[in-house]
């Protein structure tokens, strides 16, 4: 019996969740609360609750996060995840997204095909330590880091061979599938090997993230994130249970308009028992706080124009918050800024060219105005000849990811910004991974373009999608 990649991916997500739940019991609480939040949200909002994904998909959805220490390890991760039909999408530089010391660049491995996302959208945010960045590591530390990482083996060679076969053939036989899942899951279990105390402390003084990557003998799941339909409700319920949450929800604010991009929060990193090797060779027991429980609420993917506006609004929030009275929250300021500059409806986002949508001809109505070979998007939507289905944002935000990291650090570490950083971008990280990393905007744009082409064929004429300025459609 053959097991297709989507099923391998779904089983992998469940297997990792079981593992992480055993290692971090508070994660199980997070999942239970997330499920209750989603059920209550659906009960209160009906069909509208599933506007951005069916409840079955949302409840099953997870994203994981791991960290690796070198280009070799990153390339091996790419091979492993390719076996599950997960491909690198997006480039994230967390080094400059936070004032704290977070010396990593990242991508996310996920399905890219719409049907594959619908079957199972499991994604893993994967960060790589930039060991040659002099803002963080001097030459001696870099040399030792690279030697330490090179000496370890994160993935069993058999796991990579099975991954290559699954990627090439699109499936595995039942026995091979079971073996692949066992090996892949074991790769991300928390190691019980002793940690060199002096080496870990040296790295932790530079960056807690660097220590979690280059100061331990193996990688592990850093967090495994469920998706909720109301993250504010989740935050309140977790706090009521006495679970310490980070100070605020990262990303866009809660407001009365459309949800866009991604909102994230987490419970604080918990103390976990670990074994240390001391300078005299003895082993002792201790604790580390590096793993936390993250949760997310996903919104509509924004176009390049929309992302530029989002960045401008984020900067405006920073500016206003700096001059706001003490006690003013970022969320309150952001909601005010959002109301001033963003359309308050999905239709408004579509007409302004700020959000990505799939457009479908209904076949039951015609434009109320206009004629000829071109019809305007606004009149088609208004007449009901066309409906706009929002495309869910499947990716991440560098500042939000860095904010989650920073909020869970026990110390901000050290960095020397007088030094030059090692340049990285999507192209360079693609060379490291060994696979071209997809630009998420290209994927969303292709979905929208395909839907428009189908709609035009069904309607028998072209559709004019020239953006309408935000001020003209804000009340739509």
Automatic annotation (TrEMBL):
Enzyme class: oxidoreductase
Family matches, as InterPro entries: HGLS (IPR009770), YdcJ_bac-like (IPR047869)
Keyword list, A-Z: Dioxygenase, Iron, Oxidoreductase
EC number(s) per entry: 1.13.11.93
Co-factor requirement: Fe(2+)
Listed Pfam families: HGLS
MF annotations from Gene Ontology: dioxygenase activity
Keyword Endoplasmic reticulum: no
Family to which this protein belongs: Belongs to the 2-oxoadipate dioxygenase/decarboxylase family.
Protein known as: 2-oxoadipate dioxygenase/decarboxylase
Species annotation: Microlunatus antarcticus
């Amino acid at each position: 019996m053959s097991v297709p990649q989507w099923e391998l991916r779904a089983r992998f997500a469940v297997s990792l969740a079981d593992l992480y739940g055993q290692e971090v019991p508070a994660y199980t609480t997070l999942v239970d609360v997330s499920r209750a939040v989603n059920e209550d949200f659906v009960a209160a909002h009906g069909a509208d609750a599933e506007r951005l994904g069916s409840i079955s998909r949302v409840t099953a959805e997870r994203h994981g996060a791991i960290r690796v220490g070198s280009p070799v390890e990153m390339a091996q991760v790419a091979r492993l995840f390719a076996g599950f039909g997960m491909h690198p999408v997006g480039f994230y530089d967390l080094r400059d997204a936070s004032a704290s010391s977070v010396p990593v660049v990242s991508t996310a491995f996920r399905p890219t095909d719409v049907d594959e996302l619908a079957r199972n959208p499991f994604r893993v945010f994967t960060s790589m330590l930039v060991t040659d960045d002099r803002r963080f590591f001097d030459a001696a530390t870099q040399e030792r880091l690279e030697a330490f990482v090179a000496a370890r083996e994160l993935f069993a060679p058999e796991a990579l061979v099975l991954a290559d076969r699954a990627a090439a053939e699109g499936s595995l036989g039942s026995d091979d599938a079971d073996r692949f899942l066992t090996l892949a899951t074991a790769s991300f279990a928390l190691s019980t090997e002793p940690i060199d105390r002096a080496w870990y402390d040296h790295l932790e003084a530079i960056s807690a993230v660097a220590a979690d990557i280059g100061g331990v003998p193996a990688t592990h799941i850093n967090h495994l994130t469920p998706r909720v339909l109301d993250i504010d409700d989740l935050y309140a319920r977790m706090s009521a249970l006495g679970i310490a949450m980070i100070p605020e929800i990262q990303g866009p604010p809660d407001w009365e308009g459309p949800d866009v991009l991604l909102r994230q929060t987490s419970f604080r990193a918990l103390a976990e028992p670990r074994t240390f090797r001391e300078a005299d060779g003895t082993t002792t027991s201790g604790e580390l706080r590096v793993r936390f429980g993250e949760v997310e609420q996903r919104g509509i993917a924004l176009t390049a124009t929309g992302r530029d506006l989002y960045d401008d609004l984020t900067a405006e929030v920073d500016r206003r918050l700096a001059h706001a009275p003490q006690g003013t929250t970022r969320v309150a300021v952001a909601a005010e800024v959002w109301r001033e500059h963003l359309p308050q409806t999905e239709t408004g986002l579509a007409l302004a060219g700020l959000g990505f949508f799939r457009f479908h001809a209904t076949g039951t109505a015609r434009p109320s105005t206009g004629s000829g070979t071109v019809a305007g998007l606004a009149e088609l939507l208004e007449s009901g000849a066309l409906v706009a289905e929002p495309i869910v944002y499947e990716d991440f935000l560098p500042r939000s990811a860095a904010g989650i990291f920073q909020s869970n650090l026990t110390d901000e570490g050290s960095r020397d910004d007088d030094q030059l950083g090692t340049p990285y971008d999507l192209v360079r990280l693609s060379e490291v991974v060994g696979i071209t990393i997809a630009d998420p905007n290209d994927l969303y744009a292709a979905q929208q373009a395909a839907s428009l082409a189908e709609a035009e064929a069904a309607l028998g004429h072209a559709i004019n999608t020239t953006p309408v300025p935000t001020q003209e459609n804000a009340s739509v």
